[in-house]
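Figure 2 data, in text form.
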Amino acid sequence: MPVLSNCDHLKIYWNDELKQELDPDRATYAHLKHPPFAMDLGELPLNPWGDVKIEGYIGGKLVKTLMLSGSGKDADFKVTADDSELGGDGRDATRVVVKVTDEYGNFRPFATAAIALSIAGPGEIIGENPLVPFGGAAAVWVRAKEGAGPVELTATHPFLGKRSTTIRVKPVAPELV
């Protein structure tokens, strides 16, 4: 299985036990600045399934640790707005992203539970509601209405609970024509 990284050495752990040490496949991919690593899945026990830790090294120094969950469960979700403030002119809008993650914060690409959205304050949801993630994430837009005040968008997942984000709508002077 190819592993893509800009590191020059990887250590693969299965349930906290070192299983493989890998170097980039420079023989096959000599033309690439950062060739892929070839991980042998045959060396990893698939029963019981467990967590995988990948440590990335550059020049012998640990620079990145990636944890991958073996649980196969949706553990959390996050609701994040691109902007924390909108103008209350009835036209300004921002994207709000909902991400379903495992216990290490990685996307859950097969998460498909419908997430219900509700909004309070001078704003409206533009997009699907309920929202169904694709590849672990989905997005809607929140458009500010004319006026000012906080807009709270609340997302309710069927078994992970509720998460909210607040966007401040500031007053905007009327346009002079």
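Caption note: The mean pLDDT is 92.
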